[in-house]
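Continuing the batch. This is chain 6 of the set; chains 1 through 5 are on the previous pages. Same settings as before, nothing changed between runs. Recording input and output for traceability.
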Amino acid sequence: MTQAAVPAPRASLRGIAVMVSVILAGTVYEINITIATVALPHMQGTFAATHDQISWVVTSFVLGMTMVLACSGWLADRFGRKRVFLVGTIGFTLASLLCGTATSVEEAVLWRLLQGGFGAPLMPISQAMTLDAFPKEQHGTANTIWGIATMIGPAMGPTIGGLLVEHHSWPWTFYFGVPFGAVAALGVWLLVREEPHRADRPMDWLGFATLIIVVGMLQFILNRGERLDWFESTEIVVATALTAASLYVFVVHSTLARHPFLEPAMFRDRNFAIGLSLTFVWGFVLHGNIVLVSLMLQELRGFPVVTLGMVMSPRGIGVMAGMVIGNFLLKRMDPRLILAGGFSMIAMSSWAMAGWTNDVEGIDVLWTGFLQGTGTGMGFIPLFAMMFATLDGRHRTEGITMFNLVLFTGISCGIAVAVSVLTRSANINHATLVEHISRYNDVLSQPRATGAWNMVTPGGLASIEAEVTRQATMIGYLNNFTFIAILAAMAIPFVLLFRRPRDGAPSSGMH
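Output for chain 6:
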């Protein structure tokens, strides 16, 4: 006599509504990482800002995120997940509104910093709330839905931003999230039950403060270094010394403290340590290309923002496809090979971008963006799975916090370095090209050149200067793409250092 199969438990309608609410807040927050990229040239013109000044509109958001993300686990335990999520959603929504009303680059940077900081707990808490809304048997499905939603956000940001700037103005890239934030906050307030929290959980304030100083000062050095001529500036020297001293105090204190902010034992896990290094590289190459392509196509090719959004949209489609492919392959092959494939796609697409010219067409942006998105989505799942495959369960919460902190620090540093390389490379190449501007240059003596580029008339000299600047800037972009391609390729051999768990392939669930 056979026993009837017991049907798998299903999520309730209330659970699905909870999932929609928390994922909505998390996705809108993720979109805001990149939605402003297409608006940067317009904001730069409005505020009369330089390249490195306007880049802070992007990096300040990520900086605020990393500062608060580091303690999001403690905040949730200390005050309760629901309370922290509501404060974060409401604060993020209000900061988004203020971003759109900014009248100077300093205001925009401040509101973006608060926007990133208030919203930082939304990602880890939304994942926890999503899992709580589903039976344990459906956690894999819930994680996949959560992962696709959060990965698609940054990829779709430029497309949404392009449409908003084209049909309205740049402030609407920030107003966009306000109604969604309000709906998400209302849904969480009405539907989510508060979980028991530990009001007595200790906090290692010294460890937290020194870690935040290290992250903040590193970002400051990368953003201001180029403009201040690096170590020729007292400001950069002092910031570097403060970073080194804070890092030393953090390491020593974490080793000796009874309840350190980050448990040193987890860094002795080989997979986790390798995973953190690769996570930083992953974040470094993740969004630098998005910012660079957005600036290049508007500045040098004159793409309308709506066209820019459309040609960059395949990146989001690629992310979705890559997540599905990665999850499918993870159960059937060595996850190290999947991750290596993801890095390879990023390297190949970036190398192809390094061969672009000033006449690059939209089709080139389409296929390289799709390939990069596919590599990003495909590699994310095995990277996370391998990183936590051998980590002791008692370190999992801290490990996830550290993973997110390193990932977004990598993103922030990647954007800062990309802008720095662009500025320095453009200046160097401009000086090099100017050396060849002479009435004895055969190119400038051609009949076609003596009209527009007449070296005798002020208009001709201005045209020559504009063309030299254009070519020098393009070389700066190409150098960035080459650097990203090389960095992604160099990461591939280190993937093989991961140790596979003895019981087979790791789970794809991001617990």
